[in-house]
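HUMAN: Spend a minute on the protein record below and explain its fold to me.
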Amino acid sequence: MLPKRHPARQLPTRGTALHVFQTGPRMFPIRDHNPSTGTPYVTWSLIALNVAIYLWMVVALDTGEDLARLYYGWAMIPARITAFENPVSLVSSLFLHGGLFHLAGNMLFLFIFGDNMEEQLGHGGFAGFYVASGVAANLVQLGSEPFSIVPTIGASGAIAGVMGGYLLLFPRARIDILIFLIVFIRLIPVPAWLVLAVWFGMQLLGGIGTDPETGGIAYWAHAGGFAAGLAFAVPLWLRRGGPAFWSRTHGLPPHDPAPPLGRSNIPVVRKRR
C-alpha cells in the first residue's frame, strides 16, 4: 500500500466511503410520453457498456485489494486531481458503479431521457454532450472537496446533464411516475419540468446538508451536471428559435405522445354480424 502521509496517494479499500452518482431511487419514473423517431445507438451503447463493466467487476474482482486498486486507478479521487494526477478518471469514473441498484437506477434514467436528447443532438453530438456533462459534474464535485480522498463513481453526473438538456427542450413532456402510498401503487403522469425541478432541488438540499467526507450520494456532482447539461443545450435551443421554439411547441415534444401504458394505439375493428 502506498504511504498514507500523502493524501492523494492513499489507496482506498473495500470498506472506504464512496461518492456515487445515483439518480434514484427517491424518484421512480417509468417512462416519458416522448418516443424518439430514430434508433438511439449511443444511448443503447452507453447502457450496454456500463452493464458490461459492472458485470466484469463482479466476476473479475476477487478481493478488497482488487477493488481498491480499481478505484485508485479509475475512480475520480479529488485529492489526486488536485495534485495533477490521473485526469483520465474524470471520464473513466462515469462507467463504474458500486452495486446493482446503483447501476439499475442510473440506466433507467438514461433509457428514459437519453433517446430524445440523442435525437436532437445527433449521435456524435450526444456522445460529446454526455461526456462533457459528466466531466463538468466531476469538476463541481472536485470544487466542493478538492482534497478529499473519497472516490467518486457513477454515470449520473452525465445523466443529470442529459436531464438538464431535456428540461430546456421538452419542459411539458409527460413523465409517468410510480407513487407508493402504503399498500397502494399508482402511476401518475406529471410534466417533465416538475419532475426535474424537484429532483434538482433535492440535489441542492442534499449537498448543503451532507458532510462530503462521509461518502454517500455525490449531490454536488448531480447539481453541477444538471446545470452544465442545461447550459450545453442552450445553443441548440437558440438554433431552434429560443423562446419562439417554446411558443411553437408549447414545451411539448414535436410528435404525438406515446399511448398510455396498458393501452394499444392499434384501432379496434369490430366484426359485422
The radius of gyration is 20 Å. Residues 189 and 213 are 37 Å apart (CA to CA). The chain has a mean pLDDT of 84. The chain has one domain: 18-249.
